[in-house]
Design goal:
The chain is an alpha+beta fold. The protein has a domain at about 105-290 and about 295-298: Rod shape-determining protein MreC, domain 1 (Thrombin, subunit H), CATH 2.40.10. The protein has 5 helices and 12 strands. The strands form 2 sheets. A 6-stranded antiparallel beta barrel has the order 1-2-5-4-3-12.
Length: about 300
């Protein structure tokens, strides 16, 4: 109690001033219509600023939910767009009027773990078999650039081979000329990969766009890999080694798109049946419903 009295003694001058100021404003506001209008104008501006600050804070804290809603819409639109692409391509190949099947399925997932500073880098995503993820699905950035592919799947998560993995392999093509080669990572620069085995008679220039060929079992045709930054001719193999700057900044990714290609399952089985041990190393067999039993039944 004594401390409270000491505190009031220290601030009583300020309290008396505020009370008198309040009375003065009250009498001033009631004195004329003009003074009342000015007081209301000032109070309205002050209240508007407070409400504006509250609205901005509310919008900020709702950004996570808004992003999730946008991701769901992107996923739905990608699936719809792919069905239109498949229909258009089928109309070009066949004049018969029919509804084309969807050639791919798109899912959106969030990265929960990622590394770029090792020889073998992996990406973990927050979506697994219960969310429709299967081994072999392509992993792309939200703007459609190559990131990796799914290697192992649990119920709620999946482990993906990053393009920044020394064991990563895919097939790439120089968009301007149509010459293709093998994509790999040299294990040093997280912004660049190597396109090798491009024949020496190919015309290569800095700035050329590199995309997937469709020969890779994990990636659809036409996925952006990156752009040519430098190249040199390997006289021993009579082919170019091309340094490609990746189209995706793997280290800064937060969300990814997964692409499922159902027709690949049959293609992998057929190639393994015909070629056996000579089948390409990047033939990652997708898991179908039923796991190994599906492979045996096929």
């Amino acid at each position: 109690m004594y401390r409270l009295l000491l505190f009031l003694r220290r601030i009583y001058v300020l309290v008396i001033f505020l009370v008198l100021e309040g009375f003065a404003l009250h009498f001033y506001a009631d004195s004329t219509a003009h003074s009342r209008a000015r007081i209301l104008s000032v109070s309205d501006r002050f209240a508007a600023r407070i409400y504006g600050a509250i609205a901005e804070a509310t919008n900020y804290f709702s950004l996570a939910r808004t992003n999730r809603e946008l991701e769901s819409k992107v996923q739905a639109l990608e699936n719809e767009l792919d069905s239109y692409r498949a229909f258009y391509n089928s109309r070009q190949r066949d004049s018969i009027r029919a509804t084309a099947p969807i050639r791919g399925r798109y899912l959106v997932a969030r990265i929960v773990r990622n590394s770029i500073n090792k020889r073998e880098n992996w990406i973990m995503i927050d979506r697994g078999s219960t969310g429709g993820v299967q081994r072999g699905m392509a992993l792309l950035s939200l703007d459609g650039a190559m990131v990796g592919y799914v290697e192992s799947v649990s119920a709620r998560n999946a482990i993906c081979v990053s393009v920044l993995n020394a064991g990563f392999r895919a097939s790439g093509i120089v968009g301007r000329t149509g010459h293709f080669g093998s994509i790999s990572w040299q294990g040093f620069d997280p912004q660049r990969v190597r396109l090798s085995e491009v024949p020496k008679y190919a015309s290569v220039a800095r700035g050329d766009t590199i995309r997937t060929t469709g020969y890779s079992f994990n990636f659809p045709e036409g996925i952006l890999v990156g752009t040519v930054e430098d190249f040199e001719l390997d006289e021993a193999t009579a082919s170019y080694n091309i340094d490609v700057r990746l189209g995706a900044d793997v280290g800064s990714l937060r969300d990814v798109i997964l692409v499922d290609r159902p027709e690949i399952y049959e293609r992998v089985l057929l190639e393994r049946e015909i070629l056996g041990d000579e089948a390409p190393d990047d033939a990652q067999l997708p898991q179908q419903e039923g796991g190994e039993e599906a492979a045996g039944d096929a």
